[in-house]
Design goal:
Length: 222
Amino acid sequence: MASSKTRRARGRRPLDRERVLRAAIDLVDEHGLDALSMRKLGQALGVEAMSLYNHVSSKDDLLDGIVDIVAGQVELPREESGWKAAIRGCAIATHQVLLRRPWSAALAESRMQSGPLRMAYLEAVVGTFRRGGYSVLSAYHANLTLDSYVYGFTLQEVSWPIAGEAVPTSAADFVARADMAAYPHVVEIAALVAEEGFDPHGEFELGLDLILDGLERLRVQT
């Protein structure tokens, strides 16, 4: 008769690259990026850490792989509505995906290698610009500007020490303590936030629309 250990091994789903990467994402979602190690990942999968190297070549390969999976969760541009609406929708989708995993924006920006899903995302965005009438050079500028805004805003948003209902309260505390004579314009902005609140999603879309309007002028000039 087979041992209980043998029966468990037979019933376990075979280890493959996707399973390793998705387990790594689950681990990082729960414990943070600093907690990710081959040893802990092996424990989560119920295998020895060395067996992971049959599916990822290194820790860097593992990190590149999880960034690629996150990139693959973004809905690509829908061009039937025109380049601007397609790019806007994709930018909002990217922002939402990155917010769901607050660690992902900084990690993605730190990786030099791009997997097939991330490359497909880049190809779709740049291709949308090109088919929308942008030259190669202007498509390059447009993509870099858009990428910098989406990732920059997201990195700032996930780094804020306060969020939600705490923002207007914090702004009101600032107004109460601030030197109105020295910083009148800063104080009036804080007073506005204290009174009306702060909607990061609305602010993101406002900034995005301003950038898209600017990119429209870039397209026309080329």
